[in-house]
Amino acid sequence: MSTMKPYLFNLLLIPCLLFLNSCRDVNKAKSFEQMADRISKHYVEDSRVDRLEIEHKSTFQGLLVKGYTTIPEVYDSIQAVLSEGGFVVAQNNFRLLPDAKLLEGKTAGIINVSVANLRSKPGHSQELATQALMGTPIQVLDFKDGWYLVRTPDRYLAWLEPGAFVAMRPQEAQGWFNEDLRMYTGPTSVMKSEEGDIVTDLVFGNLLRYADTDWAEDKMVLVELPDGTHGYVKGSFLVPPLLQSSILRTEALLESAFANAGRPYLWGGTSPKAMDCSGFTKTAFYENGFVIPRDASQQVLAGKVVELTPDFHNLKPGDLLFFGRFREDGSEKITHVGFYTGEGRFLHAGADNGRIVEQSLRPEDEDFAEHRLKSLLQARRLEPGTEGVVPVGTAFTDILKQ
């Protein structure tokens, strides 16, 4: 009986061992993927406010892992899985954000333009996710392709170009909010230099710092932008911001809402320049001293439920109405929100209208919006002290603590 030569046997054995190792690597990678998925489902309830982004690749040297999370518990869980789960890890570049080392400690910032446009992904051509007004504090989390991943006071995550804000250490950013802080409450206008040159445009809700020594509401007064630039605005348009309000007056809320009637609809807009439906409701609350969640599907979880009836008798002016449809599994998909204004009427920013308008939910009215009545799913009353209704000052402080 002939025997196989050793070298030939080895040539046949090596591919078999590589195949077996490869199978084990694939199984290990699959196991890691499943564990990461379970961790994500447990901790990440809404990717708009918290993230777990993780990539892994199996090699002969072991797992290559990269990505990030904004949740410390997720970071700890992933690291425990990698170190205690029997995995051979060749490279571990999984990070907890904010990445203070990458950002050189500047994990905070202040918006420095009248309206900053935040994108869903890095790049000017990407979807407009939300906006932030001048003077708003942000948490700076990461840097990629020339863009910064930031968190706004409503905890929304999006990408922002560096020219729109001033990067700072958290302590520096906290110093911006002192007794000289003022809110601009005039019409869309401009701030001018001493020589009369335009420095920046301004919209209702912008936060500036008063820098004058001789204030008078009927004159132009000196103010300061977050980056230290000075200019002049009319004193009567500057008021102390409502930072720690505990009262929300319905009349004032609806006055703010109606003041924006006629503004154009803009997907992702949350400023007086243009707004989407939830940006409109969010802006009215902000002007009255409160931060609420960003999107309609988040706002529907805030406040308290108000039972809907055919005659709307349970509703009060200022309540939020939520519209949408039912998914195949029977759950609600909220896609639209507006203010109830009384007598079966509501004020909203709808893409189908093109601008913020008031319409009726009653068939007998001339401006009856039939498709809105058919898609009306919920009503909520957002009051101070209820879920998701946070004083502006508290939201600002919390974002700079993280």
Automatic annotation (TrEMBL):
GO biological process, one term: proteolysis
Keyword Kinase: no
A GO MF term: cysteine-type peptidase activity
Location of the NlpC/P60 domain: 247-383
Pfam families: NLPC_P60, SH3_16
SUPFAM superfamilies, alphabetized: Cysteine proteinases (SSF54001), Prokaryotic SH3-related domain (SSF82057)
Keyword Protease: yes
Keywords from the UniProt entry: Hydrolase, Protease, Thiol protease
UniProt feature coiled coil, ranges: none
PROSITE patterns, A to Z: NLPC_P60 (PS51935), SH3B (PS51781)
Span of domain SH3b: 106-170
Family: Belongs to the peptidase C40 family.
Protein name: NlpC/P60 family protein
